[in-house]
Amino acid sequence: MAHVSAAERRPQLIKAAIGFMAREGVAAGSTRAIAAELGVAQATVHYTFGTKEELYRAVMEQLTHDLVEQVTRAAPADASFEDTVVTLAEALWRTVLEQPASHQLLTELSMLALRTPHLKEALQSHYGEVLAVTTKLVDEAAERTGHQLGKPAGTIARFFLAGFDGLTMQHLSLPDEEAESACLRALVSAVLAMA
User: What are the CA-CA distances from residue 148 to residues 75, 154, 192 (Å)?
Assistant: First the structure.
């Protein structure tokens, strides 16, 4: 069997870990189970990542990157400020509806990270990146459209993300499409009023 370098194996293991833990949960995500998911020796996981926590960190980074990329791609180039905010919120909500397992996995990893010192930095990095991208998108939309923001873009971004996280948790816990749609519209209206 040909040797596969750690650099080549890394994305394969991250993908396998995401698939396995999205299906079975973080608690089941041992290095042994993830290695079996990919069909490699457990030592391969340890060689590639060192520790299970480093693998979890890589999973959080990949999930964050994927979600940010999907939403950023949806940013309109020529819409009004209001339409841009609506489009971005809808694009982010679509990721919840289409990829609930990814959002659930990210939520589980976030809760684990709160009590795992080695993962706390990964959690701060995740939220920091999401906040930075959201702030940037708000700033860019305001600049592109000539919209004078009523509050700093970072404050608007934090407000939106706090509400969005709550809606996501409600969707994962007690889905109600009609209520969620109404709440998302209300959140967007509140964000626009703040902006």
Answer: 19, 14, 12
